[in-house]
Amino acid sequence: MGKGAQNHGMKASTSRTSSKDHNVYAAWAKDVRECEERYEVNREHGLSDNEVEKRLQIYGKNELEKHEGQSIIRLIIDQFNDTLVRILLAAAVISFILAWYDGNEGGEMEITAFVEPLVIFLILIVNAMVGVWQENNAEKALEALKEIQSEQATVIRNGRKVLTLPAKELVPGDIVELRVGDKIPADMRVLNLVSSTLRVEQGSLTGESEAVNKTNKPVAEDCDIQGKKCIVFAGTTVVNGNCVCLVIATGMNTEIGKVHSQIHDALQEEEDTPLKKKLNEFGEVLTMLIGCICVLVWLINLKYFLDWEYIDGYPTNFQFSFEKCTYYFEIAVALAVAAIPEGLPAVITTCLALGTRKMAQKNALVRKLPSVETLGCTTVICSDKTGTLTTNQMAVTKLVAMSHRPNTVRWYSVEGTSYDPSDGKIQDWPFGKMDVNLQTITKIACLANDAGIEQSEKGYVSSGMPTEAALKVLVEKMGLPAGMNSGSSKDCSDAWNKLERRIATLEFDRDRKSMGVIVSSNSGKKSLLVKGAVENLLERSSFIQLLDGSTVELDQRAKAVILDSLNEMSRGALRVLGFAYKEDPPEFTTYNGNEDHPAHKLLLNPANYPLIESKLIFSGLVGLRDPPRKEVRKAIEDCRAAGIQVMVITGDNKNTAEAICREIGVFGQGEDISSKSITGKEFMEHRDPKSHLSQKGGLVFSRAEPRHKQEIVRLLKEAGEVVAMTGDGVNDAPALKLADIGIAMGISGTEVAKEASDMVLADDNFSTIVAAVGEGRSIYNNMKAFIRYMISSNIGEVASIFFTAAIGIPEGLIPVQLLWVNLVTDGPPATALGFNPPDKYIMKKSPRRSDDSLINTWILFRYLVIGFYVGIATVGIFIIWFTRNSFVGIDLSEDGHTLVTYSQLSNWDQCNSWQNFTVSPFTAGDRVFNFDSDPCDYFRNGKIKAMTLSLSVLVAIEMFNSLNALSEDESLLTMPPWVNPWLLLAMSVSFGLHFLILYVPFLAQVFGIVPLSTNEWLLVLAVAFPVILIDEILKLVGRWNSGAESVSKSSKHKAE
């Protein structure tokens, strides 16, 4: 943006730029005339074209900067920073080179040799594409922010009015006219009001729940953003009135520009999710383990490819076999493939995707898959108040009417929290028997009102101001007096409008703080009906109306009773409105709305309104609020039980925030919250903000600005908390980006907030967040189950290859087989473990720490034992086939294969030196294997049956092991397999896929295996099944240890 980042508070002159000019000019604290002098402009003439050009050079255009995102190439490269991915990439490259080398050596290249590297490359490409897509979406929040900027403005320049000047050409010092409905193009100082009032909807920027009144009077220099009543902000909207303003900030110097910068900064601070951190750590450990095991395998087999003689104590006559060296290098690659859970990224993505579907059914729309897992370890929820904890629909909760004596009042409690008239009722209400005083209140609430309520597909919605809409709902709940029939219980407002016709409106005024209407009855009688601030109405009232409709003088005693009622409602954080009227106002006795009538001139000048609204008759008052959602209190209790701290951060005032927090259970009714409820400004000035945030229980921050929210999130994250932050406005976007989980509102949320978020609430409901946290915990537990399952399977594969290399027998499992098992055979059971039923006490436990390990010492020991058995089983069945005719009563001689001794098998590479060694042909399915020309080929190509048995045992063990993974500690007797029918289906699919590659000739050739007989399958099951028995014993030991630890902790606690 060129020089747009320079301070806009400078005098608009290129010749004078002192250091002082670079300081922010507090236009909100200066008189209008001072501001005009500072910016060297006259409101009647505006800036000249020459001056505009100079200022454009200084400040740049009035537009938000476009930050250059990372290039696609950079994003692609970044996807390979993951440790696991780098190991996989290295394995694929080496595998490809070896396949190429073997092809050149053998004189022909078969495509089957390249299956392994090609599959790994395909996995890496898909992984990179998903990563780039996710990264690319991150910049959308900044783009959405630009869409809320105004495109045009009405400006005074060169003494003339320019109606459609492009907003990006505005500069500090420009004079701009604003009207109802205008989107404000820059931050501006209000110079003068053309209308009696000016109201701006700025909640999306400041967090305020209602449109705010603006003035041209200066305010305190150190006030917060909500207190700047004489400033209108870029991106907000004028909802009432007209005014003339002075531009004081453009582009990145506006409040919305600061939000843009904060979003960009937050983007730079995004961290990996707890799970990704754990997987990266696991990858680093895996790298070291793979390296150590590969070196160990090479050292064990060094004698096979490197030989030497000792002469005079020194090694000489070195003999090196490149062919055998390459062979053991291939074993090392096989180790790498075995150790890496290639299917893990795909299974995690699938599980998270399934989780997002479950959450969507609960109205939580997840935009970023990893956030599903992060939800599970959320420790702090920072929630906005308006619309999340409350309904964002104003509702009347108290009605105070006059009694039969002037010094007493009647109280009525009004139920309901929405705009639905049937939602709740008025307690002890005299339906159809309203006295005259109640009828007067009803009439004023209905007729001195510009709002409406109507039913839509989403329920009842309002049009107009929320406060007035709440009064319309009250009118419907009050019903009609006897003898007045509307024909429908839902048309009370229509009935009153038919009875009395509005002929004039006295608009709301910030000075008198009231709004009035003049109505004419069907008989021609005129009445002035007024609603507004109670204190102001009492000042202009001379009488009060009693229950029967009679009026008496308003004395100090009666006034004190009314003010006591006002104070009681104010203490409950209610917004209070009073009602008053005047019968037959003398100036309007014959007025019927005609512009030629003398009284019409009085209405054209708002200065006459206080006089017209004098000598009023006070009739009653109501208390309104944005009520809390019914289900929020239970959700807060669930959070407390789940060990999650709730902090409320709102732009509303302190009293309102505290009252709502007490009502929904963030604070107890009698709890001292003097240290737990502070404003955003007080927090920023706190001498030790970290200690404030470390307090137990709920906290509330009122009058909070965007920077306050960001600082709270930043400090919480520094303290090790996992933070979920809710928000709906533009002002919330930076904090949403910075939080571990940014949660935007789906109904009231701006597009900026939604694009910056990780999750969107379709119903804007706090309880949905709590439900999503429970779902996140369940998903994490299930992910932990399948991660443990896959890792334990890989440990078994590594053990198998290591044992093979250590004892010197032929290779039992080749890389392409291991890849198939890791990607395809293990995939369905691992995914099905994501459907494990949730723990019924899942929201009764404290959240896991983000640095908790996926696998603790005991679990690691368990799976090392399981892995050790897998290694023994896969190598053992390989040896059994070569050395035994039968095993545990199962006959293995049907195929006619030749038996060898264990010594021969472990020294198979010396076969050429054996005397009289012959091998008989054997059958495998329809194939016959003959070794007359080269008996030693029996250990190379003849091992195909033994390899098939090893692979089948590996598959079977991993299927049985998936049953072990149903629960970390529960026995299969208490948690049987059918609690998760999807797992049984997945096991069937995996076995089916294994049968497919066994019995389809082309696939069998690709994977280097042959069909098995019935007896051979019995042997596979006999060798595989003990894995269940072994893990059951280990689970029993684990439960015993856990029980002992619990008793020990309990005893210690009692002792203390």
Strand and helix layout:
Layout: H1 32-38, H2 49-59, H3 72-78, H4 83-106, H5 115-137, H6 140-147, E1 152-157, E2 160-166, E3 175-178, E4 187-193, E5 199-201, H7 203-206, E6 212-213, E7 231-232, E8 237-240, E9 243-249, H8 255-268, H9 274-300, H10 302-305, E10 306-311, E11 314-320, H11 322-339, H12 344-361, E12 364-366, H13 370-375, E13 380-383, E14 395-402, E15 409-413, H14 436-447, E16 452-456, E17 459-463, H15 466-478, H16 492-499, E18 500-506, E19 514-521, E20 526-532, H17 534-539, E21 541-545, E22 551-553, H18 556-571, E23 575-583, H19 598-604, H20 609-612, E24 616-625, H21 632-641, E25 645-649, H22 654-664, E26 677-679, H23 680-684, H24 689-693, E27 699-702, H25 706-718, E28 723-727, H26 733-738, E29 741-745, H27 751-756, E30 759-761, H28 766-807, H29 815-825, H30 827-832, H31 857-883, E31 886-887, E32 890-891, H32 902-906, E33 922-924, E34 927-929, H33 944-964, H34 981-999, H35 1001-1007, H36 1014-1024, H37 1026-1055
Parallel strand pairs: 13-25, 13-28, 21-24, 25-27, 26-27, 28-29, 29-30
Antiparallel strand pairs: 1-2, 1-3, 3-9, 4-7, 4-9, 5-6, 5-8, 10-11, 12-30, 14-15, 14-24, 16-17, 18-19, 19-20, 20-23, 21-22, 23-24, 31-32, 33-34
Helix pairs in contact: 4-5, 4-11, 9-11, 11-28, 11-29, 12-28, 14-15, 21-28, 28-31, 28-33, 31-33, 31-37, 33-34, 33-36, 33-37, 34-35
